[in-house]
Amino acid sequence: xxxxxxxxxxxxxxxxxxxxxxxKRFSEPAYRAGQLYExxxxxxxxxxxxxxxxxxxxxxxxREAFTCTTLHxxxxxxxxxDGTKKFLFALSDGNLVESVWMRYKHGNSVCISSQAxxxxxxxxxxxxxxxxxxxxxxxxxxxxxxxxxxxxxxxxSNVVVMGTGEPLDNYENLxxxxxxxxxxxxxxxxxxxxxxxxxxxxxxxxxLAEERLQITLALSLHAATDEKRRSMMPIAERYSLDELxxxxxxxxxxxxxxxxxEYSLADGINDAKEDAEALISLIKPLNxxxxxxxxxxxxxxxxxxxxxxxxxxxxxxxxxxxxxVTIRREMGRDIDGACGQLRRSHLMKQP
Length: 351
Prior knowledge:
about 35% helix
């Protein structure tokens, strides 16, 4: 006997035109799709029962035909240092994902996950320690933003796809998520307020460039020589820095959007004067911005955070060579702040 739940359409992953097509078989007036879409993507309701201007019979039809993805918080941590909140959400199949809510002067930002687990294997990251479980659906990415909004009661103005997972390893679902997130009929978050981070999947960067979106692409670089990058990031075995830089140039040519290079500073690994010089040589020809990140220590890894003097010295050297650079403000350091830490600590406690 087949599982009826598996046959249902995931309604929150449908664009408005797709939803209109789905509802044609219900013989409902065309405006019903707009009402449903508004309840889900603008009013952010968690259940059909809350859609009060729809008849009970219609809501029942929807319940039978569609799954309405809703995430529930298993755990919430709040930083006593800066008010940052980290959420651990349960998916319908028992998998767990985490999201981070951060308050800035320019508005509230949410960092979401794109996969349950990760298979990229970056040596300094907790997200990848248990491998990849599965890709997240567009609705599951959206619901992280929606659930955080419901739980905090505050509007989200910036979304960063920089949590657990490699977004370009989940390309089609990522693209649908971006379409829904920025749709004028939903939250209508500006593409310019969305950042997607990648560890450097070259074909994915080139493919994303062809979409000509106005999002910010952030590249996890972390080393400026192929040898050193291979020691930190297995993806570097597949794509050289030369290939990566050419893909970044292509992205800028297609979109007009400068690349952000993420560079996590680890004591004695990639924070020396020669590392800064190699980075300058590598990226100076590009229209880019460098985000220096004091690495968030993970107990299963042996990377230590660079001291303040090393971080400032690295920044100054880049600036003197005309490179735009900032030091990322550390958020949620006291609440398993690094990607994957909360999820992993929860999993480790499971019997």
